[in-house]
Write a structure and sequence with these properties.
By secondary structure, the protein is of the alpha/beta class. Helices cover 45% and strands 14% of the residues. The longest helix is centred in the middle third of the chain and has 23 residues. The radius of gyration is 20 Å and the shape is globular. The C terminus is likely disordered.
C-alpha cells in the first residue's frame, strides 16, 4: 500500500516553498501525494498561477475557504480539512509556514491522531500581536516532525522545551525554489524590464499586505507618503496585494499614487517575474516575511516595515533593516541602500542552507524516524 502524504496549502508563499518538496515526493515510488488547497487565497494571481508556473499537480481537494476573520477562516478550514483527512486517510499531514490554513490543518490532524510535519518550524518574531506568530507557535507544539530552516530556528524550538528528537534542521526550501527559478528569472529579466520601462538597479520594488500596516489608516498614509517621496527621484514598482489595493481605494490614496508618473502599480506577479524584479531592484521595501529572505539571498538591500522579524539572519551586515511606518526613515534607508551583486543562493555559507532542504524533508518523512525517534543527525545541514 502506498504511503499517503497530505500537503495542505493556502497562500502564495506556501505554494512557492512547497514546490521543491512536491517534486521530491513525485520522484519517490510507493508514495501517494495528496495536495489540499484550502483556497485561503482564491485570486488567480495569488494561488492558481503558482500551480501552473511551478508545474504542480492538481490538488486532490480544493476547499473554497476564502477570506474572513481569523476565527471564521480558521474554523471553516478546520471543518473542511477534517473531512478531507477522513476521506483521504493520509499517513502524515505536512503543513508549511504560518497561515490560518497551517494552524487549521495541524489542529485537525492532531485531533484525528494523524502525525504532523511542520515545514519552516521554529521561526519566531516574538511578537504575538502578529497572527502568523500565533499560528506557527501553536503548530510547532502539536507537530511530530519539526523541519527547522536555520540553526536559530532550531535553537528557538529547543528553548521552548521541544524534544531534540522531533527537530530536523534541514535548511530552507525557499533556497531550493530560488535556485530553480533564478535562471528562468534572469532570462526573462531584459524583456520584463523593457515592458515596464525600467533600468536595472534604478528602481525600488515594494509590497505590503500585513493588517497592522494596511488596515491602519495612519500607517497606510505614512507608507504612501514615503512612496511618493521616493518616486520623486526614482521609479517605484508596486505589485499590489488585493488587501492593500482595496484599502488604498477606500482611503482615497490610490488616486494620489496614480498621480506619480514614477510609480508603477501592478497586479500581484507570478513567482518567476517577482524574482526577476527583485533581482534587478536597487532595494526592496516590504512587510513580508518570505521576501526578506529572497532579497537577502539575491543581495538586494531590504527595508522591512516592521519592528521585528522572524528571520534575524537577514539583519547581518544591514542586508535587512527594520523600520516602522515612518516616511522619513523609509526614505532615508531606501536612498542609503546600495545593491551588491550576489551569488548567495549558491553560497555554501548561507544560513538558509544550500538547496537540499526538500530532499532532507522528504527523506525524514519517508524514513521510520518519526515513529522510532531515531537521531536526526544524519539529516542536518552540512
Amino acid at each position: 500500500m502506498a504511503f499517503r502524504v497530505m500537503l495542505v496549502l493556502g497562500a502564495r508563499p506556501q505554494f512557492i516553498k512547497s514546490a521543491p518538496v512536491i517534486h521530491q515526493f513525485l520522484k519517490r515510488r510507493g508514495v501517494e501525494l495528496q495536495i489540499v488547497d484550502s483556497e485561503q487565497h482564491y485570486d488567480y494571481e495569488l494561488s492558481k498561477i503558482f500551480f501552473e508556473e511551478l508545474r504542480l499537480p492538481r490538488p486532490a481537494l480544493s476547499l473554497h475557504v476564502g477570506s474572513g476573520s481569523h476565527a471564521s477562516q480558521t474554523g471553516k478550514a478546520m471543518v473542511r480539512i477534517e473531512s478531507g483527512i477522513l476521506a483521504l486517510k493520509p499517513d502524515i499531514v505536512l503543513v508549511p509556514g504560518d497561515t490560518n490554513t497551517t494552524l487549521a490543518a495541524a489542529i485537525s490532524a492532531a485531533k484525528l491522531n494523524v502525525p504532523i510535519g511542520h515545514i519552516e518550524a521554529g521561526a519566531r518574531s516574538y511578537d504575538m500581536s502578529m497572527p502568523e506568530e500565533v499560528n506557527r507557535t501553536l503548530t510547532d507544539h502539536i507537530s511530530n516532525l519539526l523541519f527547522a530552516p536555520t540553526k536559530n530556528a532550531e535553537r528557538n524550538l529547543r528553548a521552548e522545551g521541544i524534544s531534540r528528537k522531533r527537530i530536523f534542521q534541514t535548511g530552507d526550501t525557499m533556497v531550493d525554489a530560488l535556485k530553480t527559478a533564478l535562471p528562468l528569472a534572469r532570462k526573462l529579466k531584459r524583456s520584463l524590464l523593457g515592458q515596464l520601462d525600467l533600468d536595472e538597479g534604478e528602481y525600488v520594488l515594494t509590497t505590503s499586505h500585513r493588517p497592522a500596516n494596511v488596515d491602519d489608516r495612519h500607517k497606510l498614509h505614512a507608507i504612501v507618503a514615503g512612496l511618493m517621496r521616493i518616486s520623486e527621484s526614482m521609479k517605484v514598482v508596486f505589485p499590489m496585494h488585493p488587501r492593500i489595493a482595496h484599502n488604498l481605494e477606500s482611503y482615497g490614496l490610490l488616486r494620489k499614487l496614480r498621480r506619480s508618473r514614477n510609480l508603477i502599480a501592478l497586479k500581484p506577479q507570478g513567482y518567476v517575474k517577482m524574482i526577476a524584479l527583485l533581482d534587478s531592484a536597487r532595494a526592496m521595501l516590504t512587510d513580508s516575511g518570505g521576501i526578506q529572505k529572497e532579497a537577502f539571498l539575491l543581495g538586494t538591500p531590504c527595508v522591512t516595515m516592521r519592528d521585528t522579524t522572524e528571520w534575524p539572519e537577514t539583519l547581518k551586515n544591514q542586508a535587512n533593516t527594520l523600520v516602522d511606518a515612518d516616511p522619513d526613515r523609509i526614505v532615508k534607508l531606501i536612498f542609503r541602500a546600495n545593491k551588491v551583486p550576489s551569488r548567495r543562493p549558491l553560497d555554501s555559507g548561507s544560513p538558509f542552507g544550500t538547496g537540499k532542504s526538500s530532499d532532507r524533508i522528504v527523506r525524514a518523512v519517508l524514513s521510520t524516524s518519526y515513529r522510532s525517534h531515531a537521531s536526526p543527525e544524519l539529516l542536518r545541514v552540512t
